[in-house]
Structure formats: structure tokens, C-alpha cells
Amino acid sequence: MALSEKSVPALVDVPETANLTDLVVDSAATEPHRVQLRRHVDGAWTDVTTSQFLAEVDALAKGLIAAGVGVGDRVGLLSRTRYEWTVADFAIWSAGAVPVPIYETSSAEQIEWILGDSGAVGCVVEAPHHAATVAQVRPRLPRLASVWVLDEGAIADLTASGAGVPDAEVTARRRALGRDSTATLVYTSGTTGRPKGCELTHGNFLAEVGNICASMGDLFNPSGSTLLFLPLAHVFGRVVEIGCLRSGVVLGHAPDAKNLATDLVGFRPTFVLAVPRVFETVYNRAQAKAAADGKGRIFDRAAHVSEAYSRAEQAGQVGWWLRLQHTVFDRLVYAKLRDAMGGRVRYSVSAGAPLGARLGHFYRGIGLTILEGYGLTEVSGASNVNRPDALRVGTVGQPVPGTTVRIAADGEVLIKGPIVFRGYHGNPAATAEAIDADGWFHSGDIGELDQDGYLTITGRKKELIVTAGGKNVAPTVLEDRIRSHPLVSQCMVVGDNRPYVAALVTLDRESLPGWLAAHGRGTDLTVEQAVADPAVLAAVQEAVDGANEAVSRAEAIRRFRLLATDFTEDDGHLTPTLKLKRGN
After folding, report:
1. Rounded Cα gap, residues 391 and 397, in angstroms
2. What is the pLDDT of residue 190?
3. Which residue among 115, 146, 165, 544 has its CA within the 20 to 30 Å range from the CA of 383?
């Protein structure tokens, strides 16, 4: 029998005076020589101890203070996932300020909005081309006083300039922070255009990572290690960063996806986190390689056995013949797949989009258990997650300890607990819409709780698209711009759980003849003929390119298709108010 609500008691409570900088200060005080991170230097992984990391954080914090960053000030962080990102993150906190992460693929328009809406006084960027993009919009950002470029020695320069700031100043700023202090503003795509800044507190993160670490000791322990390659601008990567520093897991960073295979073998993590698209790609490439080597049938059989073995194991009924086949294929196929990820990986955490039971069982069957979870920026990353000791493939797991999940009468997933964010920055109306008077966060997703409290997400009330890579895409931003072209009648952006964003575009029958005449095309061209006409296709491509300028590369439309028929209310594609129905 399905449940309407599931609550899991907290394993960790957050003291009122606690803040995120306690993690690095306490670790350095109790275990100063323990390796906390590894950074890639001159082609080799170099250990960084807790005391070394704290020293770098403090030195950078002093530099930020010397540069004029005050308590509560916002500081942008625009970079790929790299060691310096984590140093800057904790240094900004140590200076009493608030980091505002920005995807390094963001457009100038997005960067302007985030820095302007947050009121950032400074921005740490990775490379000169990022600085150039910020420079384009800087005249419209009067509060932005400084831009520091990591690849041009920003950390060394700030460290030198902050040498005269006393230790006591950093200590005082740290101690001024508490559980309810704002830790970060994470801008998440909305369904109506502008990203909204989610205000997450130090208590939100400490409740999230504290309870996850306490309930997932198989992953988060001092003998573990992980290589982080997802964007730290995403709350998912941020939670793992913080969780590693809390639990003693050795953390590494992999900024370049092209080197990921080599980095995994060199770093040899015990667990990784990724979005479903990564697991799909690994599977597809392995399958393609096997086929190219003339071993396609062996791989396909091995994949079938892996899935069957996992399903049987979950049901508690693994027969002798299936077990024998699994043993054989482990030597022939599965071990090689594990070796490609460094040879030590036992678990992976997947979030951002649905993984699917097929891939979940395949990977579990080869000895890499994927712990699928669910959450949003507004709940500090994850509200639900499968654990090694509480795993049900095909679901997103039970609630994180300290969290309650309820299924509303209309099927919407509601969430309550210390992980729920404070609200949207400067947007009380949106906050009131998201969090009701009783403290329940309305996720906008549709789900079901089984008899044991495992959650399955079955749909989405909101229109936000989540690609297979875990990227949130607000379709209306793109659609509105494309529809502004005279040739276009309707546009529907698609890509939910797909590798990339695409669009279905219909032509305006009334405008078509005039456009054709103005461009020297035959005015007797029908709509059915026009959808294949090179000039028409080129014009729509220009509209798509213009729309893509407003978003990051990951959100951009990569393909479109012109349809010979329009969307109408009669065919069920439009509401009475002429809004697109995406559920069809």
C-alpha cells in the first residue's frame, strides 16, 4: 500500500552557532597532517593536508578582506570545477561573505543578471575569456568593484595583498556566522525567464551533509576518495564538496572532461557522482567498442546477465546458473569496466535527472552500485537518496534523515525539514508560492511513495526541462525569442531526459507568403514545401541562434525541426489561453 507521507528522524542536529568554516578549522586542529585533498600539479596528484588547506583558505580570506569585501557581501565564482574553486568557496565564507556560483558556460546576459541581482561586489573568474565576458556587462553593474582571474595569478596576488590583515579579523568574521546566516545564493532556472536566487543557509548545508554523511558511511569516511567532475556551480557538486571536507573523504577535482578517463585511473576514487548522461555514455561507448572489436554479442549477453543478476539479487533469488554466468562475465567484461574508472569505485551517486531502472540494474550487476537520489536547489541538493543499506533500484530512495516527504492530493511532492531553503532572493512572491504557511516546499514534481517510503518521480507539474546531463533549462526564454521571428507561429523546446535541447517549430501560414515574396522565393510555395526550403530553414536557424545567445551552451538548442502542421487547441497542443501543453 502506497504511503502519503514518509518522515525519517534526524541523525545530526545543527547547533545555532555552527557554520561551514568549522569544517576546515576543526579538521586542521584535530588532524593537521591528514590528507584532505589532492590537486593535479605538473601531471601528478599532490596531497594537500587539512592544515595546508586551512592556511590557503585563511590567506585568501585575508586578501579578500584587504580588497574591501565586507561581512555579508556577495562574491561571484565563475569557473570550472578545480581545486581553486574550493579554496575560494571556503575563503569567501571565512571572510564573512557569500559566494554566488555561476556556470562557466553562462552567457553575458546570464552573468549580468546574477551579478546584478545578487549585488555582487566582486567576482572570481577562471580565465581571461571569462573576464572579457564580465567586462562586457560591467558598465551596468555599479556595485561590482573587482574581478579576479585565477589563471592570471589571482590567488597569489590576493594572498600577498592580505598579508597584513591580522588573524583575529578572520576569526572574528568566522565567529559572526551561524546556522541561520546566508551561505550562498544559487541561481536556478525558472519557468518564466529570469533565474531565481535560492538563499541557502549554513544550517541548510550542515543539516544536509551531516545527515547524508551519517547515513552513508560506506561512502563518506576517511578511507574514501572521490574525483569531482560535475560543476561546483550546481548544488549537487557543492554538497559533495562540503560532505568530503566534513567526513574526511579525500577530494580531487577534474576540470576537463577530455582528461576524465585518465584522471579516474590516476586518482582511483572509491566513489563518484555523476548525472545519468555520464552513465549512458560509458555504457554506449563500451557497447560500441565491443561491437567494433567483434565482441558485440558477448557484451550484449553480459549486459543482459548483469541486469538479470541485479534484479534477482534485489528480489533475493539468485539462481545457480545466473550466478555462474555472472562470475564468467565478471572476468571477461565487468572487471574491465570497473578498471576504466580506476578499479576501486564501488558506488556512484546519480542525480539531476531520472537514471532509469535498466541502467541502474546494469551497473549494480557489474559491481558499481548507483545510488540514485532526488532533490532541488531549494532543498540544499537532495531530499531523497538510495543508501547502500536501503536501496531500491528504480526509485530515488527514502528521505534524507531529518526530512519529511509528503504526496499532496494532486500528486505533487512536498518537502519539509531543515534542508528547505530560506527563500528566493528579493522575490517574496515566488517564495510564498514555493513554501506554504506550514513550511512545506512545493517541488512542482509528481511522485509516489511505496509502502516502505521509497519515492518514485512520475512527472513534472512545472515546465522546467531537465536534460540527461542534469542541466535545468527554462524553455520559455528560448521559445519567446524564436516566436518573435515573423516566420514562426509556435515553438516547443524539448529535451527532458535527452542528451541535448531541441525544438519543434511551426510556420505562420499567414506571414509565409509575404516573407517568401520579400526574399525572392516563390509565393506559391506551400507550408508543406516550405519546411524543407533552404532559405526558410536558414531563416529559422538565425532565429534559433539569436535565442541561444541568451543562454549557456548547455541550454542552447542544438537541433530543430520544422513541422508542416501548427499547434492548435483543437488538436490538444494548446490550452484555451493558447499556452503549450507539454504533457502531450
Report:
1. 7
2. 47
3. 115
SS3 labels along 321-375? HHHHHHHHHHHHHHHHHHHCCCCCCCEEEECCCCCCHHHHHHHHHCCCEEEEEEC
* 95 CA to centre of own chain: 26
If pLDDT is split at 50, 70 and 90, which confidence band does 572 have?
low
Torsional class of 221: left (φ above 0), alpha (ψ -120 to 50), beta (otherwise): beta
Cross-strand partners of 272: 348
Residue type, 144: L
CB under 8 Å, gap of 24 or more: what pairs does 533-537 form?
Answer: 536/487, 536/507, 536/562, 537/562
Strand ranges, E, within 237-330: 250-253, 271-274
- 207 φ, ψ (degrees, to nearest 5): -70, -40
Say if CB 114 and CB 195 are below 8 A apart.
yes
Residue 75's nearest CA partner among 184, 203, 198, 158 is 184
Residue from 310, 419, 297 nearest 355 by CA: 310
The CA-atom distances, in angstroms, between 243 and each of 224, 320, 412 are 12, 40, 29
In this structure, the number of other CB atoms found within 10 A of the CB of residue 375 comes to 24
- Phi/psi for 419 (5° steps) reads -85, -10
**Are 558 and 500 within 8 A, CB to CB?**
yes
Long-range contacts of 504-512 (CB under 8 A, 24+ apart): 504/560, 504/561, 504/563, 505/540, 505/560, 505/561, 505/562, 505/563, 506/562, 506/563, 506/565, 506/566, 506/567, 507/531, 507/536, 507/562, 507/566, 509/566, 511/486, 511/487, 512/487
**Is-contact 199 183, C-beta < 8 A?**
no
Distance CA 520, CA 533 (A): 13
CA atoms of 423 and 431, how far apart (whole Å)? 5
Across 116-130, 196-210, 465-479, least confident range: 465-479
Question: Is 143 in contact with 72 (CB distance < 8 Å)?
Answer: no
Q: Where are the alpha helices (DSSP H) in 463-571?
A: 475-483, 512-518, 527-530, 534-548
Output the CA angle 101-105-108, nearest 5 degrees.
85
Q: Please, which residues have CB within 8 angstroms of residue 191's CB and are 6 or more apart in sequence? A: 462, 463, 464, 474, 475, 476
CA separation for the pair 199, 249 (Å, rounded): 27
Please tell me the predicted confidence (pLDDT) of residue 461.
Answer: 72
Beta-strand pair 5-7/404-407? antiparallel
CA–CA gap between residue 227 and residue 81 (Å, rounded): 10
Tell which residue, 429, 427, 458, 431, has the closest CA to residue 445: 458
Percent residues over pLDDT 90 in the chain: 67
129: helix, strand or coil: helix
**CB atoms near residue 275 (< 10 Å):** 21
Residue recorded with cell 541568451:
550
Q: How confident is the model at residue 576 (pLDDT cuts 50, 70, 90)?
A: very low
